[in-house]
Design brief:
Blueprint (H helix, E strand, L loop, with lengths): L2 E5 L5 E6 L8 H4 L1 E5 L7 H12 L4 E6 L1 H8 L6 E4 L11 E6 L7 H13 L3 E4 H5 L5 H5 L6 E4 L2 H7 L8 H12 L2 E4 L4 E4 L5 E4 L11 H14 L4 H19 L8 H12 L4
Bound molecules: ligand NAX and adenosine-5'-diphosphate.
Length: 277
């Protein structure tokens, strides 16, 4: 594992410690991640996620999608690989350590089916945005298929759609109940981000900035979680570390910060976390 997660006695997430990869490492040892693309003209969100996953340290990141969508990505990315999606998801082979689905995916039966197929693969998984909202009418269908290496990353709107029975007035209790109900780690986004695991672990990230409230910011966060899962962090730790790193991106970025600029700040954030010992 590349990061040590630190949480205070008061359940506040602290600066994580980044361990440099061993001299003998190679890109597959650092972890291979898959990010699912949105359809043509909706590819930006998944691209932001993929850039964040790669920059936070996954050894390889592949964007998977339909051919016309990949053409858009090809005009924008270089280090990130592109592969056409196949119906059986054979792309999720033994080397793949994490996946992300939802940013820009579209709210549809197609997205729902893709989520359920992906969950059957058992790979550590981040479900964000439209992958959550697509289950608004039948959340139990999603909950029945989740496993404990899944991280759900709703903002309050998405949370209310997926967990209509849970009152958001107390966000700590809401996140804890949602993790229990769904059986997955829940990262509830907002000015304070709460992370809850089905086994009762709970943490909060207060180290953030309102400059993070900008379109695509959550897509970057989802990509960070995916990139950390690829490197071997557990679902709960990946969510906690990502929330802190994302907060630091916001603090460093400050006024004028856009999601496009966020991946470029990640190396500075990582350098400040690097274990010098
Ligand atoms: N560059 C891009 O391509 C971007 C694509 N995005 C994608 O656009 C799609 C829609 O995502 P959105 O999050 O905009 O919209 P949603 O489809 O989640 O709906 C937004 C609605 O949710 C409600 N809501 C309640 N609490 C909220 C909160 N805390 N934050 C935001 N909305 C809240 C509001 O009523 C708002 O009208 C997703 O697939 C997302 O990944 C966005 O992430 C923005 C950037
Ligand atoms: N006022 C705020 N203070 C700190 N962080 C915020 C604030 N508002 C939003 N954020 C963070 O910005 C991100 C927004 O994500 P999201 O709502 O999914 O946007 P998008 O869908 O456009 O990517 C979340 O990580 C959230 O925690």
């Amino acid at each position: 594992m590349s990061f040590r997660c630190k949480i205070s006695d008061k359940r506040v997430i602290e600066r994580p410690v980044l361990l440099a990869p061993p001299a003998s490492t190679h890109k597959y040892a650092r972890g291979s991640a898959i990010v699912f693309s949105g359809p043509p003209l909706r590819t930006g969100a998944s691209r932001l996620s993929a850039q964040a996953a790669l920059t936070v340290g996954a050894g390889l990141v592949t964007i998977v999608g339909e051919y016309e969508a990949l053409k858009e990505h090809a005009a924008q990315v270089t280090a990130i690989m592109l592969r056409e999606v196949d119906p059986d998801l054979a792309i999720i082979d033994d080397r793949v350590r994490s996946a992300l689905l939802g940013p820009g995916a579209g709210i549809s039966t197609r997205t729902k089916e893709a989520v359920l197929r992906l969950l059957q693969k058992g790979v550590p998984l981040v479900l964000d945005a439209d992958a959550l909202t697509s289950f608004e009418l039948q959340p139990s269908e999603l909950f029945g298929a989740l496993h404990d290496q899944v991280v759900l990353t709703p903002h309050e709107g998405e949370f209310a759609r997926l967990f209509p029975v849970i009152d958001l007035a107390d966000r700590f209790t809401a996140a804890r109940l949602a993790a229990e109900l769904s059986g997955a780690v829940v990262l509830l986004k907002g000015a304070e981000t709460i992370v809850a695991a089905p086994d009762g672990r709970l943490a909060v990230n207060t180290y953030a900035s309102p400059w993070l409230a900008t379109a695509g910011s959550g897509d970057v966060l989802a990509g960070l979680v995916c990139g950390l899962l690829a490197q071997g962090s557990s679902a709960f730790e990946a969510a906690c570390i990502a929330a802190w790193l994302h907060g630091d991106i916001g603090i460093r970025g400050g006024p004028g910060l856009t999601a496009d600029a966020m991946p470029g700040l990640i190396p500075l954030v990582l350098a400040a976390c690097l274990d010098k010992g």
